Amino acid sequence: MVMKEAITSFASRLGLWRFSQRLIPALGRRKLLAVFTFHRISANPADPRYLARYDRGSTQIKFRTQLQVIQQLYQVIGLDEFLDLATKQSPVKRHTALLTFDDADSEFHSEAFPVLKELQLPAVMFAPTAYIGSERIFWHLQISNAFNHITDEQWSAACRELPFLAQSGNESVLSSTVITPNDRRLACQRTIWMLDKVDEDVATAAAETLESFVGCEYTLGIKCMNWDQLAELQANGIAVESHTANHPKLTRIDGERAHRELAESKLEIERRLNKRVIAICYPGGHFDANVISQAAQAGYRLGFTTRFGFCRPKSPAFQLLAVPRFDMRGDARPAAERYLAKLVIKY
Length: 347
Prior knowledge:
Blueprint: H1 2-14, H2 16-27, E1 33-38, H3 53-56, H4 60-73, E2 75-76, H5 79-86, E3 96-102, H6 107-119, E4 123-127, H7 139-149, H8 152-161, H9 163-167, H10 171-174, H11 181-195, H12 200-214, H13 227-234, E5 238-242, H14 255-273, E6 279-281, H15 289-297, E7 302-304, E8 326-327, H16 333-346
Parallel strand pairs: 1-3, 1-8, 2-3, 3-4, 4-5, 6-7
Protein backbone atom coordinates (compact mmCIF):
# COMPACT_ATOMS: atom_id res chain seq x y z
CA MET A 1 0.00 0.00 0.00
CA VAL A 2 2.83 2.40 0.89
CA MET A 3 4.61 1.60 -2.39
CA LYS A 4 1.39 2.12 -4.35
CA GLU A 5 0.82 5.52 -2.73
CA ALA A 6 4.43 6.54 -3.42
CA ILE A 7 4.15 5.58 -7.09
CA THR A 8 0.78 7.33 -7.38
CA SER A 9 2.21 10.51 -5.86
CA PHE A 10 5.35 10.39 -8.03
CA ALA A 11 3.28 9.91 -11.20
CA SER A 12 1.10 12.84 -10.18
CA ARG A 13 4.10 15.12 -9.72
CA LEU A 14 5.32 14.14 -13.19
CA GLY A 15 1.86 14.87 -14.61
CA LEU A 16 1.47 11.31 -15.94
CA TRP A 17 -2.10 10.86 -14.74
CA ARG A 18 -3.22 14.15 -16.29
CA PHE A 19 -1.37 13.31 -19.49
CA SER A 20 -3.06 9.91 -19.81
CA GLN A 21 -6.47 11.46 -19.18
CA ARG A 22 -5.96 13.71 -22.19
CA LEU A 23 -4.04 11.34 -24.46
CA ILE A 24 -6.31 8.29 -24.44
CA PRO A 25 -9.56 10.09 -25.41
CA ALA A 26 -7.59 11.97 -28.07
CA LEU A 27 -6.34 8.69 -29.56
CA GLY A 28 -9.95 7.52 -29.79
CA ARG A 29 -10.97 10.86 -31.30
CA ARG A 30 -13.78 11.35 -28.83
CA LYS A 31 -14.85 13.86 -26.24
CA LEU A 32 -15.90 12.53 -22.85
CA LEU A 33 -19.30 13.15 -21.29
CA ALA A 34 -19.33 11.97 -17.68
CA VAL A 35 -21.58 12.13 -14.62
CA PHE A 36 -19.95 12.02 -11.19
CA THR A 37 -21.88 11.24 -8.04
CA PHE A 38 -21.30 12.09 -4.37
CA HIS A 39 -23.23 11.36 -1.18
CA ARG A 40 -22.24 12.78 2.23
CA ILE A 41 -19.75 15.59 2.66
CA SER A 42 -19.33 15.59 6.44
CA ALA A 43 -17.96 18.09 8.91
CA ASN A 44 -16.42 15.30 10.98
CA PRO A 45 -16.01 11.91 9.23
CA ALA A 46 -13.89 10.71 12.16
CA ASP A 47 -16.85 10.97 14.58
CA PRO A 48 -16.73 7.61 16.48
CA ARG A 49 -20.52 7.34 16.20
CA TYR A 50 -20.21 6.89 12.44
CA LEU A 51 -19.99 3.12 12.11
CA ALA A 52 -20.78 2.71 8.41
CA ARG A 53 -19.10 4.13 5.32
CA TYR A 54 -22.17 6.21 4.46
CA ASP A 55 -22.17 7.78 7.92
CA ARG A 56 -18.56 8.92 7.66
CA GLY A 57 -18.85 10.46 4.22
CA SER A 58 -16.02 12.64 2.96
CA THR A 59 -14.30 15.79 4.25
CA GLN A 60 -14.76 19.23 2.73
CA ILE A 61 -11.02 19.35 1.97
CA LYS A 62 -11.16 16.04 0.10
CA PHE A 63 -14.29 17.18 -1.74
CA ARG A 64 -12.68 20.44 -2.87
CA THR A 65 -9.62 18.53 -4.11
CA GLN A 66 -11.78 16.07 -6.07
CA LEU A 67 -13.65 18.91 -7.75
CA GLN A 68 -10.41 20.67 -8.65
CA VAL A 69 -9.08 17.45 -10.18
CA ILE A 70 -12.29 17.03 -12.19
CA GLN A 71 -11.89 20.60 -13.43
CA GLN A 72 -8.43 19.75 -14.82
CA LEU A 73 -10.03 17.63 -17.54
CA TYR A 74 -13.72 18.48 -17.65
CA GLN A 75 -15.92 21.48 -18.18
CA VAL A 76 -18.61 21.18 -15.50
CA ILE A 77 -22.12 21.96 -16.75
CA GLY A 78 -25.65 22.15 -15.39
CA LEU A 79 -28.55 19.74 -15.89
CA ASP A 80 -30.27 21.59 -18.76
CA GLU A 81 -27.04 21.73 -20.75
CA PHE A 82 -26.44 18.06 -20.01
CA LEU A 83 -29.89 17.25 -21.42
CA ASP A 84 -29.03 19.18 -24.59
CA LEU A 85 -25.85 17.15 -25.02
CA ALA A 86 -27.53 13.85 -24.15
CA THR A 87 -30.30 14.45 -26.69
CA LYS A 88 -27.70 15.42 -29.34
CA GLN A 89 -29.11 18.94 -29.62
CA SER A 90 -25.61 20.21 -28.90
CA PRO A 91 -22.38 18.44 -29.90
CA VAL A 92 -19.88 17.48 -27.19
CA LYS A 93 -17.05 19.85 -28.14
CA ARG A 94 -14.84 19.25 -25.09
CA HIS A 95 -14.65 16.86 -22.15
CA THR A 96 -17.73 17.63 -20.07
CA ALA A 97 -19.06 16.54 -16.69
CA LEU A 98 -22.19 16.79 -14.57
CA LEU A 99 -21.96 16.67 -10.75
CA THR A 100 -24.75 14.88 -8.87
CA PHE A 101 -25.55 14.36 -5.19
CA ASP A 102 -27.94 11.79 -3.74
CA ASP A 103 -30.13 11.85 -0.60
CA ALA A 104 -30.18 15.61 0.24
CA ASP A 105 -28.06 15.16 3.36
CA SER A 106 -28.32 18.24 5.58
CA GLU A 107 -24.55 18.70 5.79
CA PHE A 108 -24.49 19.33 2.06
CA HIS A 109 -25.72 22.82 2.85
CA SER A 110 -22.88 23.62 5.24
CA GLU A 111 -20.04 21.54 3.75
CA ALA A 112 -20.50 20.97 -0.01
CA PHE A 113 -22.58 23.95 -1.07
CA PRO A 114 -19.98 26.57 -0.03
CA VAL A 115 -17.29 24.77 -2.06
CA LEU A 116 -19.49 24.60 -5.15
CA LYS A 117 -20.20 28.33 -4.81
CA GLU A 118 -16.52 29.08 -4.30
CA LEU A 119 -15.57 27.16 -7.45
CA GLN A 120 -18.68 28.45 -9.28
CA LEU A 121 -19.82 24.97 -10.23
CA PRO A 122 -23.40 23.90 -11.00
CA ALA A 123 -24.69 20.54 -9.77
CA VAL A 124 -27.79 18.38 -9.23
CA MET A 125 -29.28 17.34 -5.89
CA PHE A 126 -31.61 14.32 -5.88
CA ALA A 127 -34.04 14.66 -2.97
CA PRO A 128 -36.33 11.97 -1.42
CA THR A 129 -39.33 14.21 -0.80
CA ALA A 130 -40.93 12.33 2.12
CA TYR A 131 -37.75 12.87 4.15
CA ILE A 132 -37.33 16.57 3.39
CA GLY A 133 -38.04 18.77 6.41
CA SER A 134 -39.26 15.76 8.42
CA GLU A 135 -37.98 13.61 11.27
CA ARG A 136 -37.80 10.51 9.06
CA ILE A 137 -34.46 8.74 8.95
CA PHE A 138 -33.10 6.24 6.42
CA TRP A 139 -33.24 2.70 7.82
CA HIS A 140 -29.48 2.20 7.57
CA LEU A 141 -28.97 5.24 9.82
CA GLN A 142 -31.39 3.72 12.33
CA ILE A 143 -29.21 0.60 12.33
CA SER A 144 -26.06 2.63 12.96
CA ASN A 145 -27.78 4.57 15.71
CA ALA A 146 -28.96 1.39 17.45
CA PHE A 147 -25.51 -0.21 17.39
CA ASN A 148 -24.13 2.97 18.96
CA HIS A 149 -26.49 2.58 21.91
CA ILE A 150 -26.66 -1.17 22.50
CA THR A 151 -25.39 -2.17 25.96
CA ASP A 152 -23.31 -5.12 27.13
CA GLU A 153 -26.44 -6.63 28.72
CA GLN A 154 -28.44 -6.35 25.48
CA TRP A 155 -25.54 -7.54 23.33
CA SER A 156 -25.63 -11.20 24.41
CA ALA A 157 -29.41 -11.45 23.86
CA ALA A 158 -29.54 -9.65 20.54
CA CYS A 159 -28.54 -12.55 18.30
CA ARG A 160 -31.02 -14.93 20.00
CA GLU A 161 -33.99 -12.57 19.91
CA LEU A 162 -33.37 -10.85 16.56
CA PRO A 163 -32.82 -13.55 13.91
CA PHE A 164 -31.83 -11.09 11.18
CA LEU A 165 -28.69 -10.26 13.15
CA ALA A 166 -27.55 -13.87 13.02
CA GLN A 167 -28.45 -14.03 9.34
CA SER A 168 -26.04 -11.16 8.81
CA GLY A 169 -23.11 -13.35 9.85
CA ASN A 170 -22.78 -11.70 13.24
CA GLU A 171 -22.71 -14.79 15.47
CA SER A 172 -19.02 -14.57 16.28
CA VAL A 173 -19.19 -10.83 16.95
CA LEU A 174 -22.38 -10.97 18.99
CA SER A 175 -21.06 -13.85 21.12
CA SER A 176 -18.69 -11.39 22.78
CA THR A 177 -19.49 -10.53 26.39
CA VAL A 178 -17.88 -7.09 26.19
CA ILE A 179 -18.57 -4.78 23.27
CA THR A 180 -15.54 -3.27 21.58
CA PRO A 181 -15.65 -0.44 19.03
CA ASN A 182 -14.67 -2.97 16.39
CA ASP A 183 -17.57 -5.24 17.39
CA ARG A 184 -20.03 -2.39 16.90
CA ARG A 185 -18.57 -1.45 13.54
CA LEU A 186 -18.48 -4.98 12.15
CA ALA A 187 -21.97 -5.89 13.36
CA CYS A 188 -23.38 -2.64 12.02
CA GLN A 189 -21.76 -2.98 8.61
CA ARG A 190 -22.73 -6.65 8.22
CA THR A 191 -26.33 -5.96 9.21
CA ILE A 192 -26.66 -3.07 6.76
CA TRP A 193 -25.05 -5.16 4.01
CA MET A 194 -27.55 -8.00 4.56
CA LEU A 195 -30.63 -5.77 4.84
CA ASP A 196 -29.66 -3.89 1.69
CA LYS A 197 -30.44 -7.10 -0.20
CA VAL A 198 -34.03 -7.40 1.00
CA ASP A 199 -37.18 -5.38 0.36
CA GLU A 200 -37.18 -1.83 1.70
CA ASP A 201 -40.18 -2.53 3.95
CA VAL A 202 -38.40 -5.54 5.47
CA ALA A 203 -35.23 -3.54 6.07
CA THR A 204 -37.19 -0.67 7.64
CA ALA A 205 -39.09 -3.06 9.91
CA ALA A 206 -35.83 -4.70 11.00
CA ALA A 207 -34.28 -1.33 11.78
CA GLU A 208 -37.31 -0.33 13.86
CA THR A 209 -37.23 -3.67 15.67
CA LEU A 210 -33.58 -3.22 16.56
CA GLU A 211 -34.18 0.35 17.77
CA SER A 212 -37.08 -0.85 19.91
CA PHE A 213 -34.97 -3.70 21.32
CA VAL A 214 -32.19 -1.28 22.26
CA GLY A 215 -34.67 1.35 23.44
CA CYS A 216 -32.81 4.35 22.13
CA GLU A 217 -33.61 7.73 20.64
CA TYR A 218 -31.98 8.85 17.42
CA THR A 219 -28.82 10.78 18.27
CA LEU A 220 -26.63 10.14 15.22
CA GLY A 221 -27.41 13.62 13.89
CA ILE A 222 -27.54 12.71 10.19
CA LYS A 223 -30.75 13.86 8.50
CA CYS A 224 -32.07 15.43 5.29
CA MET A 225 -32.35 19.09 4.38
CA ASN A 226 -35.54 21.13 4.63
CA TRP A 227 -37.46 22.83 1.82
CA ASP A 228 -36.03 26.28 2.54
CA GLN A 229 -32.52 24.90 2.12
CA LEU A 230 -33.47 23.19 -1.13
CA ALA A 231 -35.00 26.43 -2.39
CA GLU A 232 -31.70 28.19 -1.65
CA LEU A 233 -29.81 25.54 -3.60
CA GLN A 234 -32.19 25.86 -6.53
CA ALA A 235 -31.67 29.62 -6.58
CA ASN A 236 -27.90 29.17 -6.66
CA GLY A 237 -27.31 26.82 -9.56
CA ILE A 238 -28.03 23.48 -7.85
CA ALA A 239 -30.91 21.79 -9.68
CA VAL A 240 -33.17 19.95 -7.22
CA GLU A 241 -34.56 16.78 -8.81
CA SER A 242 -36.33 13.61 -7.66
CA HIS A 243 -34.98 10.65 -5.66
CA THR A 244 -38.57 9.33 -5.29
CA ALA A 245 -40.66 10.08 -2.22
CA ASN A 246 -39.83 7.28 0.23
CA HIS A 247 -36.52 6.08 -1.25
CA PRO A 248 -37.61 2.49 -2.07
CA LYS A 249 -35.77 0.21 -4.46
CA LEU A 250 -38.23 0.57 -7.34
CA THR A 251 -37.73 -2.92 -8.77
CA ARG A 252 -38.83 -4.47 -5.46
CA ILE A 253 -42.23 -2.80 -5.14
CA ASP A 254 -45.39 -3.24 -7.21
CA GLY A 255 -46.01 -1.14 -10.29
CA GLU A 256 -48.74 1.03 -8.78
CA ARG A 257 -46.61 1.98 -5.80
CA ALA A 258 -43.59 2.64 -8.03
CA HIS A 259 -45.69 4.96 -10.16
CA ARG A 260 -46.79 6.88 -7.07
CA GLU A 261 -43.20 7.19 -5.86
CA LEU A 262 -42.13 8.63 -9.21
CA ALA A 263 -45.12 10.86 -9.89
CA GLU A 264 -45.77 12.24 -6.41
CA SER A 265 -42.16 13.17 -5.70
CA LYS A 266 -41.94 15.00 -9.02
CA LEU A 267 -45.13 16.96 -8.34
CA GLU A 268 -44.06 17.78 -4.78
CA ILE A 269 -40.75 19.31 -5.86
CA GLU A 270 -42.44 21.24 -8.66
CA ARG A 271 -45.06 22.58 -6.25
CA ARG A 272 -42.63 23.45 -3.47
CA LEU A 273 -39.89 25.00 -5.61
CA ASN A 274 -41.94 26.30 -8.55
CA LYS A 275 -39.79 24.55 -11.12
CA ARG A 276 -39.93 21.81 -13.75
CA VAL A 277 -38.49 18.46 -12.64
CA ILE A 278 -36.89 16.52 -15.50
CA ALA A 279 -34.68 13.93 -13.75
CA ILE A 280 -35.01 10.94 -11.44
CA CYS A 281 -32.21 9.13 -9.62
CA TYR A 282 -33.21 5.52 -8.90
CA PRO A 283 -32.63 4.73 -5.19
CA GLY A 284 -29.88 2.17 -4.75
CA GLY A 285 -29.47 2.13 -8.52
CA HIS A 286 -32.35 -0.33 -8.85
CA PHE A 287 -34.16 -0.05 -12.18
CA ASP A 288 -35.34 -2.23 -15.05
CA ALA A 289 -37.37 -1.87 -18.23
CA ASN A 290 -40.62 -1.47 -16.26
CA VAL A 291 -39.17 1.26 -14.06
CA ILE A 292 -37.86 3.09 -17.12
CA SER A 293 -41.31 2.92 -18.69
CA GLN A 294 -42.94 4.25 -15.53
CA ALA A 295 -40.40 7.07 -15.30
CA ALA A 296 -41.22 8.08 -18.86
CA GLN A 297 -44.95 7.99 -18.12
CA ALA A 298 -44.40 10.19 -15.06
CA GLY A 299 -42.78 12.81 -17.28
CA TYR A 300 -39.07 12.37 -16.55
CA ARG A 301 -36.63 12.96 -19.38
CA LEU A 302 -33.51 11.72 -17.61
CA GLY A 303 -32.96 8.78 -15.26
CA PHE A 304 -29.69 8.33 -13.38
CA THR A 305 -28.30 4.95 -12.34
CA THR A 306 -25.33 3.61 -10.36
CA ARG A 307 -23.87 1.78 -13.35
CA PHE A 308 -20.36 2.91 -14.24
CA GLY A 309 -19.65 4.29 -17.68
CA PHE A 310 -19.29 7.40 -19.81
CA CYS A 311 -22.32 8.83 -21.57
CA ARG A 312 -22.23 8.23 -25.32
CA PRO A 313 -25.34 9.88 -26.81
CA LYS A 314 -24.62 8.54 -30.32
CA SER A 315 -24.32 4.96 -29.09
CA PRO A 316 -27.37 2.70 -29.66
CA ALA A 317 -26.96 1.46 -26.09
CA PHE A 318 -27.30 4.91 -24.54
CA GLN A 319 -30.67 5.58 -22.87
CA LEU A 320 -31.77 8.91 -21.47
CA LEU A 321 -33.57 7.12 -18.64
CA ALA A 322 -30.60 4.87 -17.79
CA VAL A 323 -27.70 7.32 -17.58
CA PRO A 324 -24.48 5.85 -16.12
CA ARG A 325 -22.48 7.62 -13.43
CA PHE A 326 -19.13 7.29 -11.66
CA ASP A 327 -18.67 7.47 -7.90
CA MET A 328 -15.92 10.02 -7.35
CA ARG A 329 -12.97 8.63 -5.38
CA GLY A 330 -9.49 9.59 -4.26
CA ASP A 331 -8.50 10.85 -0.81
CA ALA A 332 -5.86 13.27 -2.13
CA ARG A 333 -4.95 14.88 -5.45
CA PRO A 334 -2.61 12.07 -6.69
CA ALA A 335 -5.19 9.38 -5.91
CA ALA A 336 -8.02 11.37 -7.50
CA GLU A 337 -5.95 11.97 -10.65
CA ARG A 338 -5.06 8.29 -10.82
CA TYR A 339 -8.73 7.33 -10.40
CA LEU A 340 -9.88 9.56 -13.28
CA ALA A 341 -7.07 8.19 -15.46
CA LYS A 342 -8.21 4.61 -14.69
CA LEU A 343 -11.77 5.48 -15.73
CA VAL A 344 -10.53 6.77 -19.08
CA ILE A 345 -8.48 3.60 -19.62
CA LYS A 346 -11.17 1.14 -18.47
CA TYR A 347 -14.33 2.69 -19.88
